Amino acid sequence: MATVTYSDYSVFLLMDGSTSPSTVYSLRELSSQTTIVVISDESAFFAAFAEWSFKSRLLVWSVRLLAVTRLSLPELHHLHGTFSKMNAMLAIVNDISANIRCSIYVHLPYSPPGTQALKVASWTPLRGLTLTTHLPLFPDKFS
Predict the structure, then answer these.
(1) What's the distance, Cα to Cα, between the start and end of the chain in Å?
(2) Which ranges of 30-77 does DSSP label H, i.e. alpha helix?
(3) Has residue 119 got a pLDDT over 90?
(4) Residue 28: left if φ>0, alpha if ψ -120 to 50, beta else—which one?
(5) Which UniProt keyword terms apply here (predicted)?
């Protein structure tokens, strides 16, 4: 392994109750490429994070969000309105058996509430990342 420095990229570790919105906003402003990874198996946490991120102006279009969970797609239906308006993807991990797999979804803009997210990729240890549509990861939703 090697240490590589990229001055244009940032990594944020968000912790419950200890990170102020102004601190995260300032860090985001210093970086030209920001990807935030939020990991949780609680639907309410994702809803609270989305509300907090809008209030703090964290999730502007240049910021990419990857939400990682083991919850099923129907359990995350309330994220449609938020995720369809941001540069966000949802990774659902299935590790019930020895076969770990991950499905990656995106909510398309201007789609009616209740519209299921579009599966754009899948990942398994054996096959690696496989795109399932012509769209790239983090597709440009508003071209």
Answers:
(1) 38
(2) 43-55
(3) yes
(4) alpha
(5) Receptor
